[in-house]
Design a protein that fits this description.
Radius of gyration: 22 Å
Number of helices: 13
Largest sheet: 8 strands, mixed
Distance between the termini: 22 Å
Oligomer: single chain
Helix content: 25-40%
Shape: globular
Structural class: alpha/beta
Length: 380
Amino acid sequence: GINAESWDLGVVTSVTSVTIVMLSLVCVGGRFTSRSMGMGLRAFSTSFRSKQATYSRHGNPQEVLSMQEEEISQPEASQVVVKMLASPMNPSDFNMVEGVYELLPELPAVGGNEGVGVVVAKGSAVQNLQIHDWVIPNKPTLGTWRSYAKAEESQFLRVPSDIPVEYAATLSVNPCSAYRMLTDFEKLQPGDVVIQNGANSTVGQAVIQIAKDRNIKTINIVRNRPNIEALTAELKDLGADVVVTDEVVSTPAIKDIIKQIGQPKLGLNCVGGQSSADLARLLKFGGSLVTYGGMSRRPVTIPTGLLIFKDIKVRGFWMSRWLSEHSEQERGVMLHDIVTMVKEGKFRLLLEQYDFADFDAALKRAREPMRNGKIVLMMR
């Protein structure tokens, strides 16, 4: 009664000195596992035919990205080859392609910065990764919209393989951003209140659930839309205490909501413009407004009086900077906490899955406004 599908790795072997294992990737009940097809082999080299979404100039992703093929040779001594299993499409990925992000890879480049893969070959000096291990990129700019990647062992971080593959693929950016912002800027206690805009984003969904797990209340602002009732129900099902549209925030009705739930100690802004000013206005004395995105492409504006009379703190957060300033051990604790929530059924995300072969359709969908779910490419 269990449906299972298998995917080939599409490898070509010839004699050499690299350690490889022929794997079959099996999806059972929505989870990928890897199994050996026979025994591990030595004295075989493997070349991998990788399909990848590449760009040689910056611009509109729908215009400059194209699918190319590359032959990837066997890994050098300290390298591994990773078969990508799944990779999301994030706004920062598109910013990189457009050439407007803080970190930019050398061109030509492969799109995507987040995802999960399985180690299928490793060099003789690789010490911390094994065949079958699930891994995520350790740093951005690796390029994850591809079927295979080859890089130094240090470019990857091992993650558990007993969670759904689409969750493993989306662990390292959005949930971790939510975790850090709820941890690092205010000493939040059970019963405290957090307010956020863009609450239906993947970060917003993670904020709702991590806050709920810590007994912190959330006020969640979203843009009005035709299916606002359905979206409100989805966010409340995740644990949101209050869901309102941005139109309500500029009316006296928001004051009644604040009286009932409490004044927010922390505001999380991914929109900018007037929305950021609205968040700051609702914070309690000494509260923090943390900006981690600017979807409106308008500057953050804070009324002078809030800084003088309410002592509001205005901060910024960038996950890539946090990773560069903290140890793998600290990152490991954070990932462990999030994975534990996933395993305990306390964390889920609204996701839309697309086969990697349908890349153009996935890209078009990812660029559409007012989606409720993250687009995830499945590399079958």
